[in-house]
Amino acid sequence: MRPVRLMIEGDAEMTTDNERRRLTEPLESVTTFFGALMIIGSLVVLGFVVFGSDTYGGGFPLTVCVTQPGTQYSSSGWNYPSVPAKPGNSVTIIGALQACADHPTAGQQALSVVTWLPTVLFWGGLLFMLWRTILTARRNGPFTPRIAVALRRLGWYIILGSASAAFVHMIATDVLLTMMASVDQPFVNLLEVPLHLPVPVLTGAALLTFARIIRVGAAMDAEIQATI
Questions:
Q1: For the chain, what are the domain ranges?
Q2: What is the pLDDT of residues 121-173, one digit of tens each?
Q3: Rounded to the nearest 5 degrees, what angle is found at the Cα of 172, between the Cα atoms of 168 and 190?
Q4: What is the pTM of this model?
Q5: Would you tell me which of 71, 159, 180, 192 could form a disulfide with 99, CB atoms 3.0–4.6 Å apart?
């Protein structure tokens, strides 16, 4: 009877693992796909930076250009009768204002990286946390206190991380535009930062809510198990 019992327990455990894998499969596939794309893209950019040459337009630094966000030419938010370029830079207005450095300085190169690096780091961290949450759900089940903790961390990460990335991006963009062009007012309105956040904030709030629901459900399940 003991071998039969072990086989039954092994089959039950395998069934549970398969069910957990199917339960997380949609999110797992998407996370794996985008994670692979990010890794491949990072390797391609790294190779382009390290092994590129100026002859073929590669190498580092490339041209440093930045576009003013949120304001289009001839729109109600356009407040610049003219935008002269500072020496060593050029300004074009095709729909939106774009400034480019003819010979980028180290400071301009650093600021150019800062305009996009926080977003890349945010998405990389999000994919990593999603993968950790998937692994936790597989090992411990979907309705456990550990999943509640993982969802709570993920929710706060999305809210705070997206806000920080948007704020840093807009600050770096404004400083770059100010270094390249001459106007009497800021190019970027920081009050527009909340306009970039409705979806991340709603997503984070939903995860925080689900974390509370799962935590309460796990506590109720533990009480029921204790009374049986």
A1: 61-223
A2: 999 999 999 999 998 888 888 888 899 999 999 999 999 999 999 889 888 88
A3: 65
A4: 0.77
A5: 180
